[in-house]
Amino acid sequence: MGCLFCNIVEKKIPADVVHDDEHTLAFRDIRPVAPTHVLVIPKKHVAAIHDLEPADAETIGRVLVAARRVADQLGLADAGYRLVVNDGEAAGQTVHHIHVHLLGGRALTWPPG
Ligand code: 5GP
Ligand code: ZN
Q1: Which ligand gives the minimal distance to the CA of 47?
Q2: Among 49, 30, 50, which residue's Cα sits nearest to residue 100?
């Protein structure tokens, strides 16, 4: 079966896609924890932040720029929103393909749980 998010990139598994470009894909989280909950991913497989290499700087930068675009597109920019990346077990990472959670549409408390 391989990587779940690579399968979404390859359209082997359906997703509610909100942004798709050469390097990045953004789709709605299947179990949203906020009114807007989108996952923004690089199309290139990198398992986690702790696997990033200097050569991946452009890849991860493109993910953040895409997240900003999606936030604008979904009308979150004025109110504000949060980007979250879970890395490893203690942070609750369950899918091992880097993804930035874009959360918005409600007040978000700090610190996160
Ligand atoms: P993590 O816990 O690794 O930071 O986040 C993984 C996220 O992927 C979770 O919020 C989970 O709900 C979401 N997720 C897991 N499987 C699927 C899926 O098949 N489709 C979509 N759209 N989201 C998924
Ligand atoms: Zn992958």
Answers
A1: 2
A2: 49
